[in-house]
Every structure is written in C-alpha cells, then in structure tokens.
Amino acid sequence: MNDRPIIIAGPCSVESQEQLTETVHALSQIHEVGMIRCGVWKPRTRPGGFEGLGEAALQWISGLKQQCPSLKFCCEVAKPSHVELCEKYDIDALWIGARTSGDPFSMSELTEAMRGTQKPIMVKNPMSPDINAWIGALERCFQIGAKQVLAIHRGFDVYNNLGYRNNPLWEIPMELRRRMPEIPIICDPSHICGKSQLIADMAQTALDFNFDGLMIEVHCNPSQALTDKAQQITPIELKQILQTLVVKQENGSAADELSYLRSQIDSVDKELLKLIESRLQISLKIADVKRAHKMTTYQPKRWEAVLNKRIEMARETGLSEEFVKELFEKLHSESIRVQEESMKIDR
Ligand code: PEP
Ligand code: MN
C-alpha cells in the first residue's frame, strides 16, 4: 500500500491506561497509521452503559503524545466543554459523531466553541441518510474558520440495513464528493460493518470508491472491549489488512483502454435512452386506447404480470432481480406519469 490513504486507527473507547498504552504502542509499530482515534466521551443509545473516562483519558493520551511524538491523536467532541478539554490536552484533531452532526442546535454550539481553530475537524455523516444535514454540518465548520475539514462516512441507520450495522448507501458519499470535491472523505468500515470479519472487504470497497482514508477501530483485546466489542480488530489484524489492501487511482495508467471502453458505455447509454423513449411513445398510444374505452391508467393486474415476467427474464440473464425490479418500477411509474399528463391535455 502506498502513502495516500490516511489511516486512523485506535480503540472505540479509552477504557484504562493499560488498554490505551498497549493498543497505541502496537499501533505505533505500523508505519501506515498516521493518527490514533480514541473515544473519551461515548454517546450511548440507552442509559447504563460505559460512557467514557473523560479528562482522565485525556491525561493518558497527553502522556503518550510525549512518548510517541510522531503520532497524532483525535477524539470525538459533542459539547463545547469537550472542545475546551481537548484544547487543554492538545489533542491534534477533533471529530463530530453521527448523533451530533445531524442536529443543527448542537452543531451550532459545538462549532462556535471551535471558532478559529487550526486543528482538523472531521464530521461523520448523520445517522439518517440526509445529505443536506451532512453538508450543513461541514459548512458550519468552514463558517467558524476551520482550515481543514474532512468528512467521515460511517453508514446510515436505515430500515433495511442488509446485514450491516449501518448501511453504506455509497451513493450518498459519492454525491457529497460531487457537491464538495475539495473535502477529503474517510471511510469508517468499523461502524458500517459492526462485525470484525467484514472490515477487510469493506475497507477495500472504500478504496475502490477512491476514498481518501480509513478510520478503523482497533483494540488490544477486542473480546474484552467495553464498547463495540464485535467490530474491533487487533493491531495484528490491522497490519494484515493494510498489507492486502490495493489502492486505486482515479486516473491510472490504463487511460487509453478506459477511454475506449467508456466510449462504448456512452453509445450503449445512447441506445438505452432511445429505447426508453420508444417505450414511452407506445405508452402514449396505450393511453389513447384507455381513454377511448374509459379505462383507468393504472392496471394493477397487468403491472403485476409485467413485473413478474421481467424478474423471470432477469433470472435467466443473470441480472440482479432487485436491480431489474427497481428499474421496471421506475419505468412503469414514468409511463403512468406520461399517460396521466396526456389525459390532462384532453380534459
Ligand atoms: C465512534 O466512532 O466510536 C462512534 C460513536 O461513532 P458514530 O458516531 O459513527 O456512531
Ligand atoms: Mn465505536
């Protein structure tokens, strides 16, 4: 792996001086690791769990910063008092968690406490897939004069998480990249996966999407962790993952081959659009027949039969059934819309 991805690693929570020291010393031996993450105040969904050690943990971090001057540390902040304490102990970077970034009141108070900071601020996506809330949180950081603002993609809590702890919904970080291309985006596979066995694959997927870095939860003894036990990996496991990851370039050396294949994609897309256009023309003729015979635009039985037939065809061709279903649902609703429009003209 080359130097490009920023690697941030460390425990979900600081639990004791021993646990922190052992984990950080092991991570200091992995040259790719550029920053240690440590949770010092832990947001808990339900009361009664471990809530972090606060200032005591910051004192230990401060001691480790003396011992390992090349390592940088970052902590989650959720309140102005957290920002002040991180300032007092010279924590190198701050991150804003998923429960805070979606709340404009908290974001406004928190960023106000950071006004004029020179430290990098990293903003996790909000729990829900609301890209505007994520962008708003990033904008608030720029508004208070932050020079370095990064985004962290940690997945979204949606109804169908498809086996992940938080569904990655890659289209959202990709849209963020399109709308704010200057902002580096880090992927947090630990909170997306929720399971240590899935981290390596997810980290590679993030690099395939050209993410700028990874934030991975690492604990010297994951089975004893007080928070996020199932998703933390050991320093040795991290080292193995980093050795197998392949960094992708947006413009690699295959430029000619890619441009040839892309021109093929362009012409297939053109054909697709022409076909969709002719499908809609037929829908319009159908609308004329329906109108002449006083039939409803939406015909549930016919639609069910069409959908089932298309899914069966998908099965035969090897296309994903889910994809074909979504595609035809979209085509059908556009047909209905176009038919309804044509009915209106005649009214
Ligand atoms: C964390 O990083 O430990 C954390 C609480 O993450 P998130 O805000 O993504 O849930
Ligand atoms: Mn965690």
Give a brief description.
By secondary structure, the protein is an alpha/beta fold. 51% of the residues lie in helices and 11% in strands. An eight-stranded parallel β-barrel has the order 1-2-3-4-5-6-7-8, surrounded by four helices.
User: Rounded to an integer, what's the Rg over CA atoms?
Assistant: 25 Å
Which structural class is indicated by helix and strand composition? Answer: alpha/beta
Number of strand elements: 8
Strand order of the largest sheet: 1-2-3-4-5-6-7-8
Can you give a write-up of this model?
The protein has 347 residues and is α/β, with parallel strands linked by helices. Helices cover 51% and strands 11% of the residues. The protein contains 13 helices and eight strands. Strands 1-2-3-4-5-6-7-8 form an eight-stranded parallel barrel, surrounded by four helices. Helix 3 links the parallel strand 3 and strand 4. Helix 1 runs parallel beside helix 2 (55-67) and helix 11 packs across helix 13 (321-346). The protein is elongated and about 80 Å long. The protein starts with 5 loop residues before the first strand and ends with a helix. 32% of the residues are buried. The mean pLDDT is 94. Phosphoenolpyruvate (PEP) binds at residues 12, 39, 43, 97-99, 124, 154, 191.
